[in-house]
TrEMBL record:
Protein source organism: Volvox africanus
Highest taxon, organism lineage: Eukaryota
Domain AB hydrolase-1: residue ranges: 108-195
SUPFAM superfamilies found in the cross-reference section: alpha/beta-Hydrolases
Transmembrane portions of the chain: none
Annotated protein name in UniProt: AB hydrolase-1 domain-containing protein
Length: 210
């Protein structure tokens, strides 16, 4: 595990359990408001067509922002026969938007837990996105990433190496050569470790668990 000096300026005060609500109101909530104003790519108008209509029932602003800004891009999985492209869901900047961040800022990739999606990162995402290009990614087989290929062909099994290849292809297409910080919760933490072991040349690792 490596200390990331780039983020040393982002600090939150320690708080005892009975002070957590006060700390949230005093420190974290204003940070989220500032971050949402600062991250220019958190401003798209309507959720994409692949988002279920039930999302309109969500009332939490952070979740609404994630749903509204989620999009899909084709990602090739070279380890699966035929190297299929999978429409991969994520929230993050375009390459043009990412180029506006400081040159020394690493790319942060947020990996969700078991039976979850990138929506899991709805509160942390805007804080990180205000400082560095940040991508909340739906792993292949989970979340809003298209799974129709695997539903139509039950013989296709998503192996650990397929998940790693999927992540690698996504990073190559979007992080523009920046060092990569992987932040994983639960299953995402395991995939971060596996990816760092498989592709040690990509960058830093930061593993977290819920």
């Amino acid at each position: 595990m490596k200390t990331l000096s780039y983020f040393n300026h982002i600090t939150l005060p320690e708080s005892r359990p009975h002070n957590r609500v006060q700390a949230w109101r005093r420190v974290v909530a204003p940070c989220i408001i500032h971050a949402q104003r600062s991250a220019s790519h958190l401003s798209r108008a309507q959720p994409a067509s692949f988002i279920p209509p039930q999302v309109s029932e969500i009332v939490e602003p952070a979740a609404q922002a994630m749903a509204t800004n989620m999009r899909r891009v084709p990602v090739t999985i070279s380890t699966i026969p035929g190297s299929p492209e999978v429409a991969t869901a994520f929230v993050g900047p375009t390459r043009d938007e990412a180029s506006r961040y400081p040159k020394d800022a690493p790319s942060i990739v947020l990996l969700h837990g078991f039976d979850s999606s990138c929506m899991e990162w709805r509160r942390l995402y805007p804080l990180l996105a205000a400082a560095a290009p940040t991508y909340a990614l739906d792993l292949v087989g989970w979340g809003f990433t298209d799974s129709s290929l695997f539903q139509s062909d039950p013989s296709l099994v998503i192996r650990p190496e397929d998940k790693a290849a999927h992540m690698r292809a996504f990073l190559e297409a979007h992080t523009d050569g920046r060092p990569v910080v992987l932040v994983g919760a639960s299953l995402g933490g395991a995939k971060a470790l596996d990816f760092a072991h498989t592709y040690p040349e990509v960058g830093w690792l930061w593993r977290g668990e819920t």
